[in-house]
Amino acid sequence: MSETPMNTLQYRFDGPEDAPVLILGASLGTTWHMWDRQIPELTRHWRVFRFDMPGHGGAPAHPCGSVGELADRLLATLDGLGVQRFGYAGCAFGGAIGAELALRHPQRVASLALIAASPRFGTADEFRQRGVIVRSNGLDPIARSAPERWFTPGFAAAQPAITDWAVQMVRTTDPGCYIAACEALAAFDVRAELGRIGIPTLVLVGSEDQVTGQVEARTLVAGIPDARLAVVPGASHLAPVEQPAAVTDLLVRHFSTAWQAQDTQAAITPPPVKPVLSAPPVAPVAEIAAAEQPEAVVGPGRPDPYEAGIKVRREVLGDAHVDRALAAADDFSGDFQELITRYAWGEVWNRPGLDRRSRSCVTLTALVAGGHLDELAFHTRAALRNGLTPAEIKEVLLQAAVYCGVPAANSAFKVAQAVIREETTPPE
After folding, report:
1. Which DSSP letter does residue 109 get?
2. Positive or negative torsion for Cα 149, 233, 214, 118
3. pTM for this predicted structure
4. In the predicted model, is pLDDT for residue 421 greater than 60?
5. What is the mean pLDDT of residues 53-74?
6. Which long-range contacts (CB under 8 A, 24 or more apart) does 249-256 make?
7. Which band of pLDDT confidence, cut at 50, 70 and 90, is reported for residue 303?
8. Are residues 187 and 213 in contact, defined by beta-carbon separation less than 8 angstroms?
9. How far apart are the first and last CA of the chain?
10. Phi, psi of 234, rounded to the nearest 5 degrees
């Protein structure tokens, strides 16, 4: 176990000290214990390094705002331990960290395994919506739905101890760190960069994974030049937990051959899956960019704010809203869409003087004063995305009632109440 400064991660080692290092990265909401069933076999060959993400498994709650920042913290941890080159296997969010390492620090990674992974996890809107739900309701709704996302129904029913362990693991995660991880996944997109991953890669997916399934796995295999695909029958999203024998065998075979620089183009045929439902459960634990292009220039030496504006606009309002607005633009309204993207979003919203929470407060108040209820609706959604809680939005509207008038605030409360109810109600 480790003391954990702010720029490093909580970790543990297992296996012989003189063996090559193999790193295992966990999924969002899980801890290093999701790999417990792989450890006995993997430590016969490697010194296994596992880490917890911030706020997971009792790790200090120092949130990370991006996948790249998490990769940097992992490397800082390894640098402090004198580990320079390693194999890396990551599940879901852990796979995103692995892809980031392979793209930004290829000299450090000898071989890579991406499990239940994707070059882009869902949509940015989906993860920001999950952050809104956690901010408003805590982690309990996410925790209660975890087993149906992570396991096949038969496994969840037959293994109640593991199901309860999964729920507790999510429930005891730090909410702020979970929300920050959602924001990191919302911004993660390496689809255009897959061709630059030059490391032997195993892409492993459960046949029943409904979160990041075979479509995403085949996208990875098609984009990474030296990649193979393995589909594990009878497994959902957390394949290492649900089918530990099959996953372990595939990892041993991949890392044993890839480190020897052997041909990695042949397809992997997964071994027959051994029955594991009667295996003793993991004991519950109480923790719980492609090369940059030159910017366009507007006027003498001034960068064009359009690209920054469209980025901020999507982050604040959501991809779906912005896509609808841009799709509806025509010869008559197109110039207006360009105007607000460039100047409202690229200039004003992108200024460093106020954070986005503060800008949302100002915007809500101004919209109440002007009686712009349609815009108030989508800026209430934006305020939730920017980190305001329903209670804080209520305070903004109460303040507006004093200075903008009770009738205006009365209408605003009706609009905001409907939006908040829709955005913060956990899915069934």
Report:
1. E
2. positive
3. 0.78
4. yes
5. 96
6. 250/113, 250/202, 250/204, 251/38, 251/42, 251/89, 251/113, 251/202, 252/41, 252/42, 252/45, 254/111, 254/113, 254/200, 254/202, 254/228, 255/22, 255/45, 255/46, 255/87, 255/89, 255/111, 255/113, 256/45
7. confident
8. no
9. 39
10. 70, 20
